[in-house]
Design brief:
9% of the residues lie in helices and 35% in strands.
Length: 581
Amino acid sequence: MAFSGLLRRRLIACSVMVAVLVFRTNGIDIYQEWNVAIDTTVNPTTSQQPVITINGMFPGPLINATTNDFIHVNVFNNLDEPLLFTWNGIQQRLNSWQDGVSGTNCPIQPGKNWTYVFQTKDQIGTFFYFPSINFQKAAGGFGSVRVNNRIVIDVPFPKPEAEFDLLIGDWLNTSYKDARSLIQSNNTSGELDLPDFVLMNGKGPYGYPGMVNYESFTVSQGKTYRFRVSNVGNDLSFNFRIQNHQMVVVETEGSYTQQITLDSLDVHVGQSYSVLVSANQQEADYYIVATPKMLSTAENSSLVGKGVLHYANSNTPVTGPLPGGPDPFDRSFSVDQAKSIRWNMTAGAARPNPQGTFNVSNVTLSQTFILRSSMADIGGFQRYVVNNVSYLTPETPLKLADQFANGSGVYQLDQFPVQSVNSAAENGVFVATGNHKGWIELVFKNDLDAMDAWHLDGFGFYVVGFGDGDWQPDLRSTYNLLDPVVRSTTQVYPGGWTAVYAFLDNPGMWNLRSQHLKNWYLGQELYIRVYDADPNPAKERPPPENLLLCGIFETPAPASPPPGPPAAPVPANAPVGQTPW
């Protein structure tokens, strides 16, 4: 199949409809231009290695938006391989064409550029972006996304003195390409079993031998600050705390939470939180610490992330032992804290009406998926599997095939089980039907001996329950249906299960994945196809005018078809695909 004149006319007509829709909204346009490149001089640790930077920055630039704004990101790919970015937690309402994962987008080829255009529709909160293919997230390329409230919506806490973005994550000293090759070949020899460092905003631990740069935040005594904390790592959950300071949890991944005061906070891979910290101690410097969960570490370990909270008039460096935290193996502490993160039912968020207007106390489920994650040998290679299926990425994005070929030749809808385990482990293109405007229950069962975290693009889900062992329907009686928090990433404890509810009101092709990079890269993902047959672009956006083509749509164009009805004129500078630069 090819990008025919008919297909071109369809895209142009669709783009006109999109322009009309855009004009009627009340957001502003935000433009960024990103030059994405490998930099071997950044050196976030004591080893020289390639780091993916954006405009020479690691982490990349902040996207600072407000509800309903339109974000335009023109990405120039200076890498020597294809590239995509995804926007972790941004729901891409009615527009999975901008989601930036392998199932929705053709990658940006080396030496080319492409512009993402998406709206922060009906969202507020703390998020981040990162490269989504080729194991590139292990080399950086990530950055913060803030979505602020509109002025007309009250924020449920006093305005802080300032806001700080804090991206914390584990890091490999091994080049991402070398790590990728080792994982693909099963030849890790244990060297990738653990990361090498925990970084804070791309900087190594304070005081670690050989480290020059560390992260520091300056505060004024008596003021309160909002820290937007994200786990951008690939493997480790961490416990976050600040010496001699408590924190008030106020938001997570677009939901205002009930405000609870904590000494420390567990943050799992892919999760984001906002916490308020009051500078109410003597003017001195204090440790900011992130220690791994389910791992014993010494204070001087490279896997203990350390930064500094610096009072503006302080002449006193950090002193004393690191602030104590929970036992990293204390599962009860972690689960109890997770259950205490609850929705603020009375606060408004992106809309004036309270969050609690939308609740799950009386919903009728239309689907239940029970998704069991484990490992299996497939053809002599160790793969991560969901219900004994390891996702095999086709050359043609699923969304592209869905739009122009009804999926034919790329995937078979509902080929694999969603409530049982496939009889034999196999690779496959796992795409399941999600009932449009139906409530789905997702039960994540973790048969691995390590923590996991699951993420759903396109939606926020209600985290209703955690448990140990196998899940059974009668365990629904243990669910919190009163005020479960809504977020897009949830942890699943080893040998346990986590249950979430989601309302599938967002048509598109949506990625459901492990946030642990190795798991994801080796097959722990699937796609949920939420389909609305109504072609009205108010129901789902048509493909963008600059749509990239690849896979079965990249073949040479056939002979011109017979003349059809006149097409709308094409502007001379109308983008159709990638442009060289």
